[in-house]
Structures
1.
Amino acid sequence: MHGTVGCCHDRLVPRVSQDHLAARRRQILDGSRACFARFGYEGATVRRLEEATGLSRGAIFHHFRDKESLFLALAEDDAHRMAEVVAEQGLVQVMRDLISAPPGREGGEHPADWLGTRLEVSRRLRTDPDFRARWAERSEQLTNATRERLKRQRDAGNLRDDVDVEVLTSFLELVLEGLVSHLAMGLPADDLEPVLDLVEESVRRHRRHG
Amino acid sequence: MHGTVGCCHDRLVPRVSQDHLAARRRQILDGSRACFARFGYEGATVRRLEEATGLSRGAIFHHFRDKESLFLALAEDDAHRMAEVVAEQGLVQVMRDLISAPPGREGGEHPADWLGTRLEVSRRLRTDPDFRARWAERSEQLTNATRERLKRQRDAGNLRDDVDVEVLTSFLELVLEGLVSHLAMGLPADDLEPVLDLVEESVRRHRRHG
């Protein structure tokens, strides 16, 4: 055994190159996110991915094995960012971000720029059983983040304690899925703020217990 | 003005033929419902519609102008049947029917046999702006049935009175959309019964008001 051999070959790459690789990877993810959101998975051709990222197909597929791997990495990246918002502010805040940022609005990076990816994930889960299997193992982190957040809220006395945390988690995920679908259908979201208030109140400690 | 000229030419058709027309129309709707659910809108070719209904294309398109008109009539028919369940038992019962009947299960007519149509409506609303415009005018009846049911429940003292009926209606519709999407993605529904209990309880009169 040689002490400097790690499981990741990045360990053997100089720091400056590592930073470069990470920046390049980020550039590809951010460019292709907009491309997948605009054209859908099938419509996001290699040529369009080149245009959207400003990189050649050679450069793109140096970092990601194929389009499918790129999309899965993107979906995983977005799920990770959503999970971070969930951990700090809860899943209802994720939903509030969604309706405060109608899809298609311009203006640079936005907390809800993952909507396009999420819609494509939902669509492919409906239509592509192979994708369903590949996504299953990656989809747990949002559920886990929601569950952990709810447990902390329960410990802090903010959550109702007459309904199991698993049920509350499923409830919030179901509403999120409905909201994503609602937005995907182009339905107006400007009247949903009080609906999300109701959702939030439904998982909170009831005043009759207070 | 002639007293016997009605706005509908069916008034001039003998009763037995009217019954025949209605039965034929029903035959087409029920056969094509299964066909659209199985193959999707695009995949439901005229040949497949002929097989599914047991009728020739000439007979089918004698009753419906084209495939689009047939699909819209079907979606409207299903929305009407859903609205009837809503009027009598509420939208949460519609959702309970959905999770007690996993899509694809065999066994003849079922209260949730409209799931396939509903999924296709949702998908086409996402992908087809023209369809969106045509469907908008027809989609009101489920919302109206839900709103009217909630108003009656409020008058009967069963509904919470601190949240507007419009908000409660939107809330229930959002959960339904989430449930439809959940099932469409092939996710398990066997643990959603307590989630629907929570949804139902969230619109009911709170005990603290009782």
2.
Amino acid sequence: FDRTAAEAARRRQDQLTKPRGSLGRLEELAIRLAGLQGKPMPAADPVQILLFAADHGVAAESVSVFPQSVTNQMVHNIARGGAAVSVLAAALGARLEIIDLGMVTDPGPIEGVRSERLGPGSGNIAREPAMTSEQQAGAMNAGRAAVERAIDGGARLLIGGEMGIANTTPAAALACALLDLPPADLVGPGTGLDAAGIAHKTEVVATALALHATPGSTPMELLGRLGGFEIAALTGAYLTAAQRGLPVLVDGFIVGAAALAAVRIQPDVRDWLLFAHSSAEPGHRAILEALNADPLLQLGMCLGEASGAAMAVPLLRLACALHQNMATFAEAGVSEG
Amino acid sequence: FDRTAAEAARRRQDQLTKPRGSLGRLEELAIRLAGLQGKPMPAADPVQILLFAADHGVAAESVSVFPQSVTNQMVHNIARGGAAVSVLAAALGARLEIIDLGMVTDPGPIEGVRSERLGPGSGNIAREPAMTSEQQAGAMNAGRAAVERAIDGGARLLIGGEMGIANTTPAAALACALLDLPPADLVGPGTGLDAAGIAHKTEVVATALALHATPGSTPMELLGRLGGFEIAALTGAYLTAAQRGLPVLVDGFIVGAAALAAVRIQPDVRDWLLFAHSSAEPGHRAILEALNADPLLQLGMCLGEASGAAMAVPLLRLACALHQNMATFAEAGVSEG
């Protein structure tokens, strides 16, 4: 974090033709981005969205209203431009890279999708670890490599997203373990469970925690036992983004669990995270509180696919445009208060 | 409001490739815009911003930290592209029309500003009515005519904004009178008053209310006695927008007071108002509650100039893009839950 650039940005904000502080969080955003990017005139573009997809063995425990085949179907839909993240990326002019880390069935080559399969989905966390240490290293490396590609391509802002039927279950289990909270605090409806479904999912998470969240486990161990390929890839991506100085706009519940893991592995990661939105998934609140995060948007979204983060991109862009293009009191010949 | 179009939009939302309701308020926005525009595929563009400027006699009571000359200076700054609203309109590709309804000194012709002067600013509401009935009619007609021009130009979404040093004072007074609330509930720091300044401003508003908010006064009378030229123009603009079926994205505190007056004059206006943001000006809350409004953004802004409304434009655009461009379950071959 470049305090000199941030301080220069703050001084500039105080000279722009507006009452001091009247742009609220837009001023904070411009100043924070200036510090993160080391430039008094920060930029939100280019924006790189990384969309990691994988299947989850815990889907066998009937924790989702959608069948597991939907992961594969949605990866095709995202690649063809029909999913929410595809529409948002196109509308925003953001780059979108889709990475398949292992769905239950190998779909073969899909145009616009990188295949980096680590296996036929992760293990069923109610019975076994989500992944081997080799798979975990592979997933985290896939995240790291994707961020390196983004940086090589000139990205100034990173967004991670996910697609994987049943993945609110490992996300809730991982967050419970990292935060030492009971399953009832983190488990929610996901894509649409009713009360009975949520009660069952809560039991599944409790079983997984009893099996894997043994005293003294490290965040890295919990990520491998309770996470998923796409969650571990996101954690790896955020560790790398922070190390390489690339600001991250964090999506909702599942990505939030991955971000939490990254911060528990390396606390300095927190500085690089901007939180886009509060998910309607109720467990998101506990993750946000643990990360001392105050998201920019509250739109009642809970779709995943980086959609909530994408919605906040215009706020960052406009914050940068105001910072760069507004006249100062001196330039405009306007009297100060 | 076209219930058939709204219902068609709702059915489409339920067929798009996402869990039902997972786009939260973006789904509501698309459905509501569909009903307001009478089209199952609504659009947010073109966006027309109308920026009304005027001076206020009550500035003589020392209710603002900025000198009155700043209204004139800021109108020049807005026209030259250096103000927040200018930067936002350019970044968003929104149309911006600036209308001078009467500053204390006639600035003569300004490139990019329509001169529709009604006098050298409004009267000092602590001593006299803000305007004559002729001036009030002129201001409301200026708002009406501006909306007619916007509609003739093809606008699909209207944003009103204001510039006028001291205008949080008439806005607070007008809202107090319309809501029958004490000045302390509506008076705030505006552009930066300290506690002593707020206490003094509260007394000025109390004086104005004692003079003008006589029992049995109509909303139209209160607008003329306590408002300002730009506030009355905004009220006229919103009455016309509703009558002509043009959705309005409402800015913050001052515009909110004008919108409240429009709704009290003609309750059906409420249907046409979408609320963009919660202002940091504390009195905004009472106006929003009275209008049963739940704004899209909470960014701690309090700049005026339509800046808060402009920030919400991307949300409406992206809501429309998702509605129009996402694939349905059938189109994408995705299984429903």
